[in-house]
Write a sequence for this structure.
């Protein structure tokens, strides 16, 4: 059984959240639709989700390479910013929890 990520554990494991997590984890990069399939969603689901995320301004088109359009999470969008903050905070909290036993052992 695959262990669920902290982000999905807290916000729910839905196709939309998987895509958002994928984009947040690679926030410095832009992705084709084919790349976004690595988030663990189907082609049909991705084609339904992306127009909504574009309309909400959470994702934007960055450029075209040949016939492929590339997409990226929109750091200017308040919802996207808050999701990134939450993602980072969850990781930092978990890291702090993992470091505490090490600090006790080193004393």
């Amino acid at each position: 059984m695959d262990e669920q990520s902290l982000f999905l554990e807290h916000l729910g494991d839905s196709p939309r959240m998987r895509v958002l997590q994928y984009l947040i984890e690679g926030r410095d990069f832009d992705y084709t639709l084919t790349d976004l399939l690595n988030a663990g969603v189907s082609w049909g689901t991705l084609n339904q989700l992306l127009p909504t995320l574009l309309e909400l301004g959470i994702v934007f088109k960055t450029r075209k390479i040949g016939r492929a359009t590339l997409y990226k999470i929109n750091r200017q969008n308040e919802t996207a910013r808050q999701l990134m903050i939450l993602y980072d905070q969850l990781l930092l909290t978990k890291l702090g929890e993992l470091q505490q036993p090490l600090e006790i052992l080193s004393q």
Q: What stands out?
A: The helical segments are 6-11, 15-25, 33-36, 43-56, 78-105. The mean pLDDT is 92.
